Amino acid sequence: MTNDLATLMRQAQDDDPLRALHATTALRREIERLEAVQVRKARVAGLAWAQIAEAIGVSKQAVHKKYGRG
Q1: Distance CA 33, CA 4 (A)
Q2: Residue 60 to residue 70: CA distance in whole angstroms
Q3: DSSP for 7-55, written as a single string
Q4: Which helix (H) or strand (E) holds 66?
Q5: Can you give the pTM of this predicted structure?
Q6: Which of 3, 48, 53, 55 meets the CB 3.0–4.6 Å disulfide criterion with 60?
Q7: Distances (CA, A) of 23 to 7, 34, 45, 47, 55
């Protein structure tokens, strides 16, 4: 299955439940990967955990637990 987001979005709406589930799972993985990249970029740019947490709609503790090193 391709990781092209547009293709995955179409497949996630497929009438075939298994095809839709596979696409939905692939989308979630890709979104998680993209979010991690952006969080790293934000930290490198000097943004605080609180700012990052606000941007993604979670608590500071949650974002730090998920992406913090340590």
Answers
A1: 14
A2: 15
A3: HHHHHHT-SSHHHHHHHHHHHHHHHHHHHHHHHHHHHHTT--HHHHHHH
A4: helix 60-67
A5: 0.82
A6: 53
A7: 9, 16, 33, 33, 26
Tell me the pLDDT tens digit for each residue of 53-65.
999 999 999 999 9
Task: Give whole-number Cα distances, 68 to 13, 14, 34, 51, 59, in Å.
Answer: 34, 37, 16, 14, 13
CA dihedral 13, 15, 17, 23 (to 10 degrees): -30
Residue 24 · residue 14 · CB < 8 Å: no
20 within 8 A of 14, measured Cβ to Cβ: yes
Q: What is the dihedral of CA 50, 54, 58, 61, to 10 degrees?
A: 0
CB 5 within 8 A of CB 30: yes
